[in-house]
Specification:
This protein is an alpha/beta fold and 122 residues long. The protein is 43% helix and 19% strand. α3 links the parallel β3 and β4.
Length: 122
Amino acid sequence: MAKILIVDDSKMLRDMLRYALNEGGYEDIVEGIDGLDGLKQANNAVFDLIITDINMPQMDGLVLIENLRKVPHYMKTPILVLTTERSDSMKVRGKAAGATGWVVKPFIPDQLLKAINIVLNR
């Protein structure tokens, strides 16, 4: 089963994500409370998928993604952005940073699970 890191500064959103992931059969989940903590968590374990917000204190999601892509193990790891940001320019910035996919909040659990299954090739 895939090991997933979710990074978001909102505890409520992390809880909702954890619930949706558990319902989809994903149970090995670690949380990061902001980009800096997410990077620390990613350096302490190996994850198969990372889901991150963009707008967070300490380190935003784009900087987190850029830093993760410098780590050999995370060069090809799927990274999904889950954010309220909808603009095409922000999506371009996310892709340039190394994001694999983009999901806009509020998310629909079934659509998020479908995206996860696609990037994990399940």
